[in-house]
Amino acid sequence: MLRKLSPLLALLTLSLHAEVKVLKNFTLIDGTGRAPVPNSAMIIDAGRITWIGPASQVKAPASAETVDLTGKFVMPGIINLHGHLGATVDLKQSADNLTEANVEKNLKTYASYGVTTVLSMGTDKDLVLGMRDKQRAGRPAETRIYTSGEGFVFKGGYGGLAGVNEGVSTAAEAAAKVDALAAKKVDMVKFWLDDHLGEQKKMPYDVAQAITTEAHKHNLPVSAHIFYLADAKRLADFGVNGLAHSVRDQAVDQQLIDSMKKHGTWQLAATLSREASMFAYAKTPAFIDDPFFRRGVSESVVRTLKSPEYQKAQAADPHFAHYPEFLETAKKNFKKLVDSGVKYGFGTDSGPPGRFPGYFEHWEMELLVQAGLTPSQVIQAATKNSAEFLKAKDLGTLEKSKWADLMVLDKNPLDDIKNSRTINAVYIAGNRVK
Q1: Running DSSP on this structure, what letter comes out for residue 194?
Q2: Are 30 and 132 part of one and the same domain?
Q3: Quick one: which H or E segment has residue 174?
């Protein structure tokens, strides 16, 4: 009987060996904040790191695929805690665009830029939940989805996406809707609390508190879109888990810092690239002919961004003169919170028109360094910290037993954060992204 099974066992053995990859001779930036380690190697089996250490000590299985990365730098894939999937085609956003094909296109674009996980924040139809579930049942070769499903807006107020976010009017209605979302097993709950500089209705605090309280009954974290310091303070006191943007109307104060630390509220994302995009297109942006940007957008987008008519329309925004101020305030506030010991992650608000998936994550890292963070802090924010917020224990750092979600770079991002753009290869769960 054993003789009859031996050819099958041999075939299975070869199949298993085909899953094994050995990457060697690279400098490891593992995402933990530890010093980079030259001459490193790792063994990846079925998408997970099974060994990591000095290249001189690696013992490669006989049939493993071996990749020599001499001169390269390996860091964890980027985790974006604030994106919006599938609703934008070129520069037009609509719920009608939210198809599986368009979500898939976004995921592939993110992946090609080394963004290996994205949290889609509140503008998703149920199809995105289905795509997430399918990913988690297997081993993805594209960007991993986390989703808050349909986020909460106050009926007739600011936020969301027409055709997706219906709006709620009362605390009781909001709580019931949280229960329905929990039944769909969303990864978190998102709501908008803003009045768009006084132009629209803002969600009342009792509704925001009801959302937060009910979500916590289901052990779901809660993230809030905010703009004003006063709202950030109130929501931190409610125990909101994350602020999805920096405070932008004025400097943060010690009261907010103390409340965030007391209640475990994260500065989930700075979204500096989002703020920069609010005024970047009133002229031809400096990155328009950068091949790293161009490879992620259509020629139609490039033509529009270069168009005098489009640029004139951007500059005609009645709040246009204030957008650069908001960016600078966001930078200073994020740095102050980081320096004060508030927990922080990484996110961009990419996905809506003019906020380009993939490119914006690298621009965000550059802007965070301009805000005063070190490249090491930025990398930790975009990897280890963001995985911690998601409670994704298998993601975020390059250590034994974790998923092999990583970027191979030609240059050291610790020397210059813009070297994150020197992408040689991307792997998600050990699968090389095409």
Answers
A1: -
A2: no
A3: helix 171-183
Phi and psi dihedrals of 264, rounded to 5? 70, 30
The two three-digit tokens of residue 270, written as one number: 């700075």
Asked if 210 and 310 sit in the same domain, the reply is: yes
63 and 169, same domain (yes or no):
no
CA distances (Å), origin 74, targets 3, 201, 391, 422? 44, 47, 23, 11
Task: Output DSSP code: residue 270.
Answer: -
Question: Can you tell me whether residue 85 is helix, strand or coil?
Answer: coil
Helix axis angle for 171-183 and 205-217, nearest 10°, is: 30
Domain count, the chain: 2
Q: Which domain holds residue 67?
A: 2-75+399-432
Nearest partner of 113 among 372, 348, 353, judged by Cα: 348
Output the tens digit of pLDDT for each of the chain's 434 residues: 333 434 443 333 334 435 899 999 999 999 999 999 999 999 999 999 999 999 999 999 988 999 999 999 999 999 999 999 999 999 999 999 999 999 999 999 999 999 999 999 999 999 999 999 999 999 999 999 999 999 999 999 999 999 999 999 999 999 999 999 999 999 999 999 999 999 999 999 999 999 999 999 999 999 999 999 999 999 999 999 999 999 999 999 999 999 999 999 999 999 999 999 999 999 999 999 999 999 999 999 999 999 999 999 999 999 999 999 999 999 999 999 999 999 999 999 999 999 999 999 999 999 999 999 999 999 999 999 999 999 999 999 999 999 999 999 999 999 999 999 999 999 999 999 98
Q: What global pTM score does this model have? A: 0.95
Q: Which residue has the tokens 């992650």?
A: 345
The CA distance from 237 to 292, in Å, is 42
Cα 347 from Cα 343, distance rounded (Å): 14
Residues 385 and 405 in one domain: no
Residue 159 shares a structural domain with residue 184: yes
Work out the number of other CB atoms within 10 angstroms of the CB of residue 261: 15
